[in-house]
Amino acid sequence: MTADLKARRRLARRLSAVEDEAPEAAQILGEAYQAPRRAVVVGITGPSGAGKSTLVDRLAVLWAGAGEEVAIIAADPWSPFSGGAVLGDRVRMSEAAGNPRVYLRSMSVRGETGGVVAAVADLCAVLDHHGIRRIILETVGAGQSDIEIASAADCVVAVSVPGLGDSVQAIKAGLLEIADIHVVNKCDLPGAEITRGQIGDSLGAVYRGPEGLRRVDGARRDDLAHGLPRHFPGVSALLSRHGDPAEEAATWRPPVLASAARAGTGAGAVTAAVDAFLDWAAESGHLADRRTGRARRQILRLMERRLLADMAAATAASADDLDHWCARVVEGRASPHDAAAHFRESLSRAPAPGTPQRKPTGGP
Can you tell me the distance from the alpha carbon of 45 to that of 241, in angstroms, rounded to the nearest whole number? Predict the structure, then answer.
């Protein structure tokens, strides 16, 4: 067995331990989080049938060909019975799967909403710790619901395609707002230019000037900032993600690119745009802001999970009390909010796990 194969198998075991929350996961994560993050995470999202997996295959091979170590985390639909994934992405990523510089892992979303798995931040930390510097995260492909990737990736690429029966699929709230780069895949199909135009026109309602990186002087900056509809909901959030021309000399407007991934065209332009965006984000400080926000959301999510687990355990321990409250709700004598408040108060009064119980005083 070669050293590389041994390392891959060790990495696979460590990722599985983290994903399954095995007893050794705490030590693995403790080691992984001891170093600053050096890997970049590129998120690929979009509706099912847009050709995301084929595009990811091309992107991974290009970055690997440039000498990078690349990992792909592909979120697959899950079985509600077994919790397993179909693992179909490997079929559409044949080139990447056979490349020695690419590590491919398919994962079940296990009922998680948002198109990505809850443990993805931990998995990225482990991959980073093993020397992988480019991580591609592909969502499950549920279209507009795949917005959680915006909080998991350094750069988000939204893939759309003409001919899916919804000509405005990519300009709806959600995908339009989270994307740093738009790609109209299968551009050799009829209607591709119409789709590109629709996306570009929608972006033009918020962004001024040419696509991609924009470095401008003071006068030009005023031109770009003039007339922006800042009173519209979400405009300030978009400007905070990509730079406000009223305050910053270098800003980013998401480009709308064309590709035909199956035919092998357009992927090079996508990798160039991703790298240009990451360079701008690192230089401007937006990348650091995103990673700080990601850490904050991860901490809050872990707190929420642990609080819910503690409450579920406390509720299960008082099954009779739960039955009592369920009956009251059904009979119209209480609301579910009253019941939740009751159990929350019970949990706050309960001693922390492992706390020694005080012995009663005054007795024998």
Answer: 18
